[in-house]
């Protein structure tokens, strides 16, 4: 029975971590000077990058600041090589995502409390 509770709690924790990352990405997309353009048309590569970041964080399990930054950098390196994606856009995304670490960390802390 305890294995079932642990598995359920871990699933809930992963979901909350994903929600925290989603909130950080949403904040990046919908605030600041880029908000007008972003609201007009979200670029598909940003949504794909968000999904890939979530997958990497879910697979990693226990996520620290360094791991989060490395995951963001890996995603940025991949998308900066794609045609149609400007380096400035990628750099802006990386900067904002790294600024959002505290928000992501709060979500992870809440998830850890629920799994105990």
Task: Please describe the structure with a list of short key phrases separated by commas or semicolons.
116 residues, mainly alpha, 6 helices, 83% helix, 0% strand, globular
Describe the structure.
With 116 residues, this protein is mainly α. The protein has one domain. It contains 6 helices and no strands. α1 packs antiparallel against α3, α3 runs antiparallel to α4 and α4 runs antiparallel to α5. It is globular. The model has no long low-confidence stretch (mean pLDDT 75).
Secondary structure blueprint with pairings:
Elements (H helix, E strand, L loop, with lengths): L1 H29 L4 H6 L3 H17 L4 H16 L6 H13 L1 H15 L1
What's this, in brief?
The radius of gyration is 15 Å and the shape is globular.
